[in-house]
Amino acid sequence: MVTQTDNLNVQATDESTTPRALVCDFRPGLEGVPAVQSSISYVDGKAGILEYRGIPIEELATRSTFLETSFLLIWGYLPTEAELAEFQHDIQFHRRLKFRIRDMMKCFPESGHPMDALQASAAALGLFYSRRALLDPSYIRAAVIRLLAKIPTMTAAFQMIRKGNDPIQPRDDLDYAANFLYMLSEREPDPLAARVFDTCLTLHAEHTINASTFSALVTASTMTDPYAVVASAVGTLAGPLHGGANEEVIEMLEAIGSVEAVEGFVDRAIAEKSRIMGFGHRVYKVKDPRATILQQLAEQLFDSLGHDRHYDIALELERVVADRLGHKGIYPNVDFYSGLVYRRLGIPTDLFTPVFAIARVSGWLAHWREQLAANRIFRPTQLYGGEHGVHYVPIDERGPVQLAP
Ligand code: CMC
After folding, report:
1. Residues of the chain with confidence (pLDDT) below 70
2. Is there an atom of ligand 1 within 6 Å of 278 CB?
3. Which ranges of 186-331 does DSSP label H, i.e. alpha helix?
4. Can you say whether residue 334 is alpha, beta or left, with left for phi > 0 and alpha for psi between -120 and 50 degrees?
5. Which among 207, 281, 310, 367 is annotated as catalytic?
């Protein structure tokens, strides 16, 4: 049954002109419409629960590591000691980039956004590793290893290249998180910083069918290669309503400038109906559980490495937004505190979203595997709202176009 019919000739169409019965209401943004059956992660937005393969995010954040969690997400179970050691070893072995990939990245404009560089680099992996064998388990495993291994190296390489330096080679004695921080600065990170960063990756690894994961699934459903799957997801994650919000949170906190200015900022935003970045979520109507953990991580870092005065502004902002917009379920989401953590770790602001992508590769790959196991190409329908029977008018007979207001 169709409910949203204003100005629409309500008829679902495909390539043929045959009308088809709609099986559900039209929901802009597909809000609440199930697109897949999945057993990878679970969110209860009213209770503030997030589970990966049934395990609460709080347990994984405190007891697991990013690579162990990635194994869990992608293969569906917690690895044995030997399986985890092999997984970590293989990823470490494949971290380096071919010199031609580095040369290709050197041709990227240094003023380009790192998310665009990452999307292009991820897609280019398909050129360098072009064999496509989606029915071969060894191909699937190799693609998983390669993407988890190389996406951080490519992110760090672009950071070095745009500063006019050569990319820093990965260091085999450093684990996944510590090595990424090292490749950004050529300095071995503080152990607390490396551990906090690893936890951040775990928190961002997966989050059901959001926009970028849906994008990955649509691409995967055509049976294309996994590099195209990840590249399309990176492109989708880049937008400010999705992964790009963490970058904008920092800009917003800087623009607010002081704790005293927070109330006025929030009241103006509400009056102007503008979005307060880092708040609100399609699913969570309470504080995002990842925001709670990230806030604790931020406090640990500030205690050890020094305070950030923007944290005081953030705390006040959380208080005032809860007061003014809490009744609409608007609370901090994952992006609200992550930027403050990343900044204290020395990560440049425009790398926040690529860091999100580094983590989310494991979720995208988990969904890619799940999609391949029961694939059906995505092909939704539409509600056609245009005209019929219109005739071509030669250019010299056309009057001015009347644009709709
Ligand atoms: N600031 C102020 N008001 C808000 C906000 C916000 N950040 N988010 C939602 N609202 C209001 C909105 O104006 C609307 O009010 P009303 O019913 O009076 O018109 C109501 O809440 C519902 O908004 P919506 O647009 O229907 O909600 P949505 O589910 O479509 O949007 C969202 C979800 C994340 C796009 C949105 O909350 C938003 O734009 N937030 C700011 C950007 C942001 O932080 N994005 C990161 C999302 S979490 C990580 C990720 O997914 O990557």
Report:
1. 1-23, 405
2. yes
3. 191-203, 211-220, 226-237, 245-256, 262-271, 289-305, 309-325
4. alpha
5. 281
